[in-house]
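Form 7-S
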Amino acid sequence: MDDKKKFEIEFDDDFDLWLAQREQAKKTSQITKPAQPAKPAQPAKPAQPAKPAQPAKPAQPVKPAKPAKPAAPVRPAAPARPAAPAAPARPTAPADAATTVIPPMPAKTKTSSGSVERPDARQFKPVQSDSGNDIAVSRRDVVKNFKIHIDENEYSKPAFEEPSASSKPAKKDKSIYFAGRKPTKAQIERRHAQDKAREEKKKKDKQVSARPKLSERDQVARLSRIILWVAIFVCSTVIAAYGISCINDVLAITRSDELVTVDIEKGSDYNDVIKALDSNGLIKHRWFCKIITKFRGFDEEKYLYGKHYLTADMGVEGMLTAMLEDQTSDKTIRLSFPEGWTIPQIIEKLDENNVCPAEYIYDALKDVEFDYGFVRYIPTDELRCYKLEGYIFPDTYDFFVSEKENGVGENPTSILNKFLSNFETKWNDAYAKRAEELGVTLDEVIIIASIIEKEAADKSQMTKVSSVIHNRLNHPGSYPTLGCDSTKKYVTNYLTPVLGSAGANAYLGSYDTNSIRSGLPAGPICNPGVDAIEAALNPDDTNYYYFCHNEDGKIYMAETYAQFRANWAQVLRDNEGN
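Output:
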């Protein structure tokens, strides 16, 4: 039985012996004799004490299917106590009748170790036969090699298999059978498959176990090499990522194109500029940018202070170039600004030509402190709209142009510096000396020149208009206001489009010299040229206090108001004739 495991079940000794005695008693009770006449009862003799039972011989062990250990010998039973005198017996069957004795089930006793143990089979009383002789009954004679075999393979089958249409109904499976039953062909094949699988597994286990095992030192060395390679890979990745980020500060391949305002204070050097770029998030690796830009000579350049509008995608070199005092660019434009233009007119033209957005120039006008000698003589007055109005000297200039829409071609501080620097060169010591002789300040000269620029039709009329302004200023009691329409038009025509009606009207009282403001307005009303400035410093010596023009620009001068009325009537006639 190669494909089955054999299990031997041995019954309890007590139960086997009792069962054998019970069967023997049944057999003997069936043998009876003819009934005899009853004899008078004899008085019962006192029972003799029972002889002590002889110890039974140990039973021979049954040869099991597998080798088993022999059973240990059972201790002999103790001698029985003498029986008490029996009472007179009742009339019984004839003496020659056979008697049947069924011994009771032996009781269990406790051992000294606490376990329950029944007496050995040899301690039971033997069964009496017809002749009165004892019959020794052995368990081994009753229970032979009784075995039960259980097939493990039957439990590995599925609980239910769907039968095919052509197959016959499966026979009832029996997983418990005697050893003499032969296994089926399917069981033998399944057993052979299992044996083959076990053999293959053993071969694989032998192959794995046959591999040479590394020593502890070799294992540590291999682990060290793995850790080293991992560390090298991680370090290389980090260094590569850091290097790409550093190079990206210069190439600016993936950087933002959003404009960022950078304020550079007056007196800042190369290190301050690099620090400002870093603090505004335009560069990420300051030390690397320093190495690159120093190699390119940017540390020896002078940088423009004030507001700079930069983008990270310009790269560090592009940003530094845009911040230089002497900027360079591949694309420039030349623009001319006539005398008498206002700041809103000039800024609008710069914006239209992609030099710089208008809002950036307005911010620079308000926030930047320009380092020019004449700027400190300009009063700070809240009633003044633009502090630098009158000093943006009209001329022809070259500017850098942005190729992007709403881009910054040139820094607004650089743009304003061009105008202011030109004014500083035009205002000379002779002008300053003449202003001192007239008893007027630099700012008052520019205000008078701006009015002359707007009121005079040409250069020949400038000195005459200048004389009227100076005569009125010298006699404020008789002429509290200048009576010039140009100061009022500055607010309505130039400030209102930029500031709106409400914002512009706030400055009307400080600029309207026709009927509200006495003396000069709060500031210049345009940016005058050299001719107007010289006319303001050198007026004609006249007694004129009034003037007016017709549509052709012809000027009419008057000393009294009556003459002015007559001149005005003539102007109306001239305009009607046109």
